[in-house]
Amino acid sequence: MAGPGRNLAPVATPLSASTPPFSFSSASVRHPPRPRPSPTPAAMAGVWKLGRSLRQPELHRLVLALIIFCLVSMALLAYYVSSSPKIKEAPPLPLSDCGAGSAVAAAGMAGAPRAPLFLPPRAGRRPAGKAADVPRTDPTVLVFVESTYSQLGQEIVAVLESSRFRYRTEIAPGKGDMPTLAGHDRGRYALVVYENILKYVNLDSWNRDLLDKYCVEYGVGILGFFKATENSLHNAQLKGFPLLLNSNLALQDYRINSAAPLLYITRPNLVDPGPLPGDDWTGFQSNHSTYEPVLLAISQSSEPPGQQGAMHSTVIQDLGLLDGIHRVFFGNNLSFWLHKLIFVDSIAYLTGRRLCLPMERYLLVDVDDIFVGKEGTRMKVTDVEALLSTQNKLRSLVPNFTFNLGFSGKFYYTGTDAEDRGDDMLLRHRKQFWWFPHMWSHMQPHLFHNVTVLAEQMRLNKLFAQEHGIPTDMGYAVAPHHSGVYPVHTQLYEAWKSVWGIRVTSTEEYPHLRPRTLPPRLHPQRRPDIAQTNLDKSIRGGELFLTVLLNPVSIFMTHLSNYGNDRLGLYTFESLVKFVQCWTNLRLQTLPPVQLAEKYFQIFPEERDPLWQNPCHDKRHKDIWSKEKTCDRLPKFLVIGPQKTGTTALHAFLSLHPAITSSFPNPSTFEEVQFFNSPNYHRGIDWYMDFFPFPSNVSTDFIFEKSANYFDTEGTPRRAGALLPRAKILAVLVNPADRAYSWYQHQRSHLDPAALNHTFHQVMTAGPSSSREVLALRRRSLAPGAYATHLERWLRHYPPSQLLVVDGALLRSNPAAVMDGVQKFLGVTPHFNYTQALIYDEGKGFWCQKLDGGRAKCLGKSKGRKYPDMAPETRAYLTGYFREVNMDLLRLLSRLGQALPGWLREELQSGRWS
Ligand SMILES: [Zn+2]
């Protein structure tokens, strides 16, 4: 019973833009799934409350282990059915064999000439592409697009993103300006893609040379598209290549050259009969043996006499016999589905199968809303028989195929008499299906804030299952409308765990729709014939096909009415499976949800770690987020550290500002929140938001958080960038030598034996034979001081305009001036006069808050501690030690156009002459 609110469309598996590279073959072997302890109901209670027990981080991990894979939906069907009268027509017959194209195409084929299908194979090929032993390039694709918004560019990126391949886009320069391709004897890109091949062939000789040398040296291939325009010459040579282009052709009968070495997923031996869309196709022609046709078609009869029936090669691969560079050229864009398939194979081929998904495709079909549904749209006995018979047929094609039924027991026996008999028939055959709980009354969990209410609803459904012998141990559930799954509604997870022992769930929303640019939506149609035409398009190379092509694991969400009212669900999956098996070598199979999740995490181990995004930045997320939650409880800026640079003083000064509010301290430590860099992250954003006050009426209020460890912890910028992409970032930097010394003193005052028993000089100059404790202390003293490295990591997730480097030495000596700059950077109003708010405390030697009556209120005595000056020889040692990284910082700040801290200037000057 999916209402209009369930505005879902088939989509590909989500992934993060900064997903680390992966190699499919190793990922599935070397990463055993993490053991999943099973929580007891008692242990789950209060999981999301503020720090209460030591076991909590572990429990939080469990809670989040629930968040799982993509869910691919078939809302078209559901929506169509629920908003239209009952269909009287007989269910359509699924695709039966590989030869038949669409009805229109088949008619167009009658009597059409057939050219020979295959070219003779040539000797001396490397069919698997160039497999290097140790890759010398990063597994990243460099994509030269025409503009940020060019359509083909977006389609290229969508395929890469769906496949979770790392990529970088650059606007193809008219001339010059090739980005840096290699460094430290390592190539940055494994493949170069040109949206417009002409940008490649027209490169000036210097840049072309640079690119060619790079491709040869690192074994990198080139992939390019030629899209004809009205102005394209009908016949032209591709500049610099023995290759002729015939443009603006009208073609038909597309076929695959089975001898093309790049074929991998694509299964040849087929003709897609009928005319190709458009009359702007380009064919490549060459006599040189380096070129091998990949896709071929013949001229339509509308072409001039003499041209009719001629064979054209619209995708061609260059085997590198001329200059050692492998290339694939497309004589059109990616609009035609077969081009997407060949594009995926080309990427695999040109990267020696480094950028390539495994051949296995796991499918699961969820049938939500069992027993839910209006009278007249539910399953009758004959529908259940059809479901069973289709399941059996599918099992011969897809090992283990089993429909996964999601039930809401409250609606059992609420149909017509014939439908009630259908309910009984389903239950009689319950052992032949898998089952999962939907929600007893099909309610949306995110609207309920009381765990008890949710748990009670679940208990009723479980009782129903037990009464009717429905298995209750699948460990999987999906909430109606994805409600509460993501963005996470913690109460739902708590109730799921306590009542059902749920271990995995699925949603299409996590961490957001992927790719972001969806192909055009299929709109609900009132006419069944139109609905089915759209569905056919989706199956025959459209969205449904691409979903399977680009995702190793797909879960399809369908609804009861797709099996009762119109049986389009049966039609869809039988046809889809057949189409996939006709055109690809993909191996399809089904697994129960928990095993499927394990498989998913084997393939994408990096996704075990959740990534929270801001629900308010995505309308779809906001719609299924609790109305009681607000993104105004997330910080507008972060003070990220590092430690011992004066961040506490900055925090105190900021807090004096009337429009700036800090987070509450962590109640368990009375100190920093430490969300992004610690296991606290697994407690979720509700936990994090509890550290911030409910927003006042003043929308200009700035709330912020300071955790000094954020600066130099590896995964923090990515997490912060996902949740707070618009936040501003403040880093406070002092001379890293002074920072190291301060850290050492800090450790002394905390009675670290390594610090107590060794002088600072001993620690700094400790060699590899020193004790572990001393080396650890040395590392913690020195590592954060590589400022540029850490800042670069932040800059991968934040634009430079959102980052401010604060001179920590100046903050100490002249805080009012620094705070003026900080206020300007934040854009906070009103302007606060720190000259009047601060007073210099002679005794402390610090600027402190000026109280009424002129007294000073300073930070606690642990702050601004006094200790002896650093020994000159240690300072000299550290000046040398940090020279390189300080130079890096100089370069970085110059690039960003930020002021150089005084200490950096001095340090580099003294360094130069010492
Ligand atoms: Zn539902």
TrEMBL record:
Q: Name one Pfam family in it.
A: HSNSD-CE
Name the enzyme's class: transferase
Q: Where is the composition biased (Low complexity)?
A: 12-30
| Keyword terms, alphabetized | Disulfide bond, Glycoprotein, Golgi apparatus, Hydrolase, Membrane, Multifunctional enzyme, Signal-anchor, Transferase, Transmembrane, Transmembrane helix
Family to which this protein belongs: Belongs to the sulfotransferase 1 family. NDST subfamily.
Sulfotransferase domain residues are: 635-884
The organism's lineage is: Eukaryota, Metazoa, Chordata, Craniata, Vertebrata
Q: Kindly list the GO molecular function terms attached to this UniProt entry.
A: deacetylase activity; heparan sulfate N-sulfotransferase activity; hydrolase activity
Record pathway:
Glycan metabolism; heparan sulfate biosynthesis; Glycan metabolism; heparin biosynthesis
Q: From which domain of life does this come?
A: Eukaryota
Recorded topology in the membrane: Single-pass type II membrane protein
Q: Where in the cell is it found?
A: Golgi apparatus membrane
- Which cysteine pairs are joined by S-S bonds? 848-858
Is Hydrolase there in the keyword field?
yes
Query: For 3'-phosphoadenylyl sulfate, which residues are the binding ones?
Result: 742, 847, 863-867
What EC number(s) are associated with this protein in UniProt? Answer: 2.8.2.8
* Keyword Membrane part of the UniProt annotation: yes
Q: Name the chain's protein.
A: [heparan sulfate]-glucosamine N-sulfotransferase
TM ranges are 62-81
Q: Report domain Heparan sulphate-N-deacetylase deacetylase positions.
A: 360-517
All residue ranges annotated as the Heparan sulfate-N-deacetylase N-terminal domain in the record:
137-350
Species per Swiss-Prot/TrEMBL record = Synaphobranchus kaupii (Kaup's arrowtooth eel)
Instruction: Give the residue ranges for region: Disordered.
Output: 1-42
The record's active-site residues are 644
